[in-house]
């Protein structure tokens, strides 16, 4: 019952050719019969050289998401290379143990290139982690989550139409490590599951089918200080999650499913002004379903399976979950250079474009607040515009589009003219995974406006604020404060939405560390 992904005209351009030239400890693990790039394993302290050859028919460049490397090695879009050219990366791995991502970063082409397969996992190991003797080898399973759409010939479909750009592109099938209907045969013991959300736009709410809580041992920037349990965990594009999954005591033949659980990721704009001008017909029923969005066959925020675990072997030998995992140096407000003046990252959702700080991406457009003094620790605040300037008409989009967007969000049928009508502006506010290049940060506070509290309640117990992060999911109406160090390297380091269609639309900016 599984749909094979047939090799087609695209497969030629779907592979990274990564060769680790130096460092005896670097290894590549191929993902067999899969369009994903191989998993690259590096050691903290290792010096690597990577020859990246562009065999596409268009420019590209690769970014090492999560690694802190010199600006020149960070895959900034200004370093794109043409077909046939090679970019030689050289850097020292200064990150602690963590699961990172390598993926393209050419401006306006990232989403499509990632979609067609240019993405892979990059694992850093270090001595602190090695001492813990966490499950490894066959007991450490990478889980790259992606959603895709296929045509009748089993080839990937991608098309960023206006509504796809506004919401992001969603598939109607979830692939795990490039495969549909994924199943893992396990022994009745502890495993380490290393999740990476490599989807363009889809957000997952991970939960075990039998209600077992998730035991989290790490996030984007590596291990937590100690294990923490969550009823479910939100995982947005660009985020990673390290899970201790103990199948001890489960009898041979038993099964367990990892699901994405229901949540509300999109909320309608409901100000008096807009409501007053809209047509009211059909609103009531739609509101209920507005928490969902994305491909109608698999709405985001609906309930669907991701992969199955099948216990095929019983064993009584299983490692113990360590109670202490690592030591993290916590920053506080007294460490930051700007306690009273956080660096703003304002999310603006306007009818035609999603932006950060009100400006679309452009080279050489550094604003004063985007200049960061080197070797400082900064307080940053991510927040929503709050509805200002969003009352413009949907002019060029027209009624059909409005109806379609609403239909998508509600998971219901497309109906012309059933949108909120008239001269309304952006009719929804959605969740955005905001990613910052460079060193990982710490989330110090989150708060949500009262008007968005209902949607927030469907995700809040699955947002992890401990540990080191490089991507943070910011919900509608939410304000997130974080502390981020800017050490080691001067130059341009991007910050952007990791909904890749948003990123390509210009929801991306640079910090200039100087
Ligand atoms: Cu994963 Cu700037 O990206
Ligand atoms: Cu990055
Ligand atoms: Cu976004």
Our measurement of the CA-to-CA distance between the termini, rounded to an integer number of angstroms, reads: 55 Å
Low-confidence stretches: 1-25, 271-292, 387-425
The bound ligands are: CU-O-CU linkage, copper (II) ion
- Oligomeric composition of the shown chains: single chain
CATH 2nd-level architecture of the largest domain: Sandwich
The profile of the biggest β sheet is: 8 strands, mixed
Radius of gyration: 22 Å
Strand segment tally: 32
CATH topology of the largest domain: Immunoglobulin-like
Shape: globular
SS field, number of helical segments? 8
Q: Could you name the CATH homologous superfamily of the largest domain? A: Cupredoxins -  blue copper proteins
Characterization of the model:
With 514 residues, the protein is mainly β. The chain has 3 domains: 1-127, Sandwich (Immunoglobulin-like); 132-264 and 300-323, Cupredoxins -  blue copper proteins (Immunoglobulin-like); 333-391 and 426-513, Immunoglobulin-like, CATH 2.60.40.420. 10% of the residues lie in helices and 36% in strands. The chain has helices at residues 110-115, 127-130, 162-167, 272-277, 283-289, 398-410, 453-457, 500-505; strands spanning 27-29, 39-43, 47-53, 62-65, 86-92, 98-104, 120-125, 140-150, 156-157, 173-176, 179-180, 182-187, 190-197, 204-208, 214-219, 222-230, 233-235, 240-246, 255-260, 266-268, 304-313, 343-349, 354-356, 371-372, 376-384, 428-430, 432-436, 442-448, 471-474, 478-486, 491-497, 508-513. The strands form 7 sheets. Strands 8, 9, 10, 11, 13, 15, 16 and 18 form an 8-stranded mixed beta sheet that branches. A 5-stranded mixed beta sheet has the order 1-2-7-6-4. A 5-stranded mixed beta sheet has the order 12-21-19-14-17, with no helix packed on it. Helix 5 (283-289) packs across helix 6 (398-410). The longest helix is centred in the C-terminal third of the chain and has 13 residues, at 398-410. The radius of gyration is 22 Å and the shape is globular. One copper (II) ion is lined by residues 63, 65, 435, 437. This is Blue copper oxidase. It holds the Pfam family Cu-oxidase_3. Residues 15-128, 429-514 form the Plastocyanin-like domain. InterPro entries: Cu-oxidase-like_N, Cu-oxidase_C, Cu-oxidase_fam, Cu_oxidase_CS, Cu_oxidase_Cu_BS, Cupredoxin. Keywords: Membrane, Metal-binding, Oxidoreductase, Transmembrane, Transmembrane helix.
């Amino acid at each position: 019952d599984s749909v094979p992904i047939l090799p087609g005209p695209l497969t030629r351009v779907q592979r990274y050719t990564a060769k680790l030239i130096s460092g005896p400890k670097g290894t590549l693990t191929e993902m067999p019969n899969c369009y994903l790039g191989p998993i690259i394993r590096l050691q903290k302290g290792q010096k690597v050289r990577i020859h990246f050859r562009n065999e596409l028919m268009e420019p590209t460049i690769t970014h090492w998401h999560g690694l802190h490397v010199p600006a020149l090695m960070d895959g900034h879009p200004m370093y794109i290379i043409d077909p046939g050219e090679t970019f030689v990366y050289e850097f020292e791995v200064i990150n602690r143990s963590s699961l990172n991502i390598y993926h393209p970063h050419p401006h306006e082409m990232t989403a499509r290139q990632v979609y067609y397969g240019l993405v892979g996992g990059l694992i850093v190991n270090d001595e602190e982690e090695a001492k813990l003797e966490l499950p490894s080898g066959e007991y450490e399973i990478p889980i790259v989550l992606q959603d895709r759409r296929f045509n009748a010939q089993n080839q990937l479909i991608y098309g960023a139409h206006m509504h796809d750009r506004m919401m992001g592109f969603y598939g109607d099938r979830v692939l795990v490590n490039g495969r549909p209907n994924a199943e893992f045969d396990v022994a009745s013991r502890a495993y380490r599951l290393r999740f990476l959300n490599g989807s363009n736009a889809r957000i997952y709410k991970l939960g075990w089918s039998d209600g077992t809580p998730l035991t989290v041992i790490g996030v984007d920037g590596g291990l937590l200080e100690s294990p923490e349990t969550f009823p479910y965990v939100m995982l947005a594009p660009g985020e990673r999650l390290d899970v201790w999954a103990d199948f001890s005591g489960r009898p041979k033949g038993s099964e367990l499913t990892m699901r994405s659980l229901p949540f509300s990721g999109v909320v309608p704009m409901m100000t008096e002004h807009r409501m007053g001008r809209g047509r009211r017909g059909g609103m009531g029923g739609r509101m209920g379903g507005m928490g969902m969005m994305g491909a109608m066959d698999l709405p985001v925020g609906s309930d669907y399976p991701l992969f199955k675990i099948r216990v095929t072997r019983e064993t009584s030998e299983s490692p113990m979950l360590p109670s202490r995992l690592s030591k993290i140096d916590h920053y506080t407000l007294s460490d930051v250079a700007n306690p009273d003046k956080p660096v703003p990252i304002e999310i603006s959702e306007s009818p035609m474009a999603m932006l950060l700080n009100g400006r679309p991406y452009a080279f050489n457009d550094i604003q004063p607040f985007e200049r960061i003094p080197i070797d400082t620790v900064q307080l940053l605040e991510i927040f929503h515009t709050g509805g200002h300037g969003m009352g413009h008409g949907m002019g060029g989009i027209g009624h059909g589009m409005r109806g379609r967007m609403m239909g998508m969000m509600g998971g219901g049928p497309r109906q012309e003219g059933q949108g909120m009508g008239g001269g309304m502006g952006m009719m929804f506010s959605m969740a955005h995974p905001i990613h910052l290049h460079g060193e990982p940060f710490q989330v110090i506070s989150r708060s949500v406006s009262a008007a968005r509290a209902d949607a927030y309640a469907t995700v809040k117990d699955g947002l992890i604020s401990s540990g080191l992060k490089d991507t943070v999911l910011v919900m509608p109406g939410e304000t997130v404060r974080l502390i981020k160090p800017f050490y080691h390297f001067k130059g341009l380091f991007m910050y952007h939405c990791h909904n890749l269609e948003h990123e390509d639309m210009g929801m991306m900016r640079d910090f200039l560390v100087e």
